[in-house]
Design brief:
Layout: E1 2-3, H1 5-13, H2 16-30, E2 37-39, E3 48-52, E4 55-61, E5 67-74, H3 75-81
Parallel strand pairs: 1-5
Antiparallel strand pairs: 2-3, 3-4, 4-5
Length: about 90
């Protein structure tokens, strides 16, 4: 799994317990375990969201099929703040 610079920075700013929960959820998804993942629609079609408490991680698959964590933030702002890379 790859992480964008935004995800790395956001993880560093979180409480250690929350950071641990998010890392565990990301590891589970990367390992094929079932988590609360859903496809996004509209301008974010092609991306998925991972729900971890009040946080959301926006995910996608790159050209090689590897999972990429693109954006991390609280649910109330993540969908307004995230802009897909060009």
């Amino acid at each position: 799994m790859k992480f964008s610079d935004q995800v790395v920075a956001a993880l560093k700013d979180l409480h250690p317990g929350v950071r641990k929960d998010i890392r565990r959820a990301l590891d589970d998804v990367a390992g094929g375990k079932k988590r609360d993942v859903g496809a996004l629609t509209g301008e974010l079609a092609g991306f998925w969201r991972l729900r971890v408490g009040k946080y959301r991680v926006v995910l996608r698959r790159d050209k090689t099929g590897e999972l990429v964590a693109e954006f991390l933030g609280p649910r109330k702002t993540v969908y307004r703040s995230f802009r897909p890379p060009s």
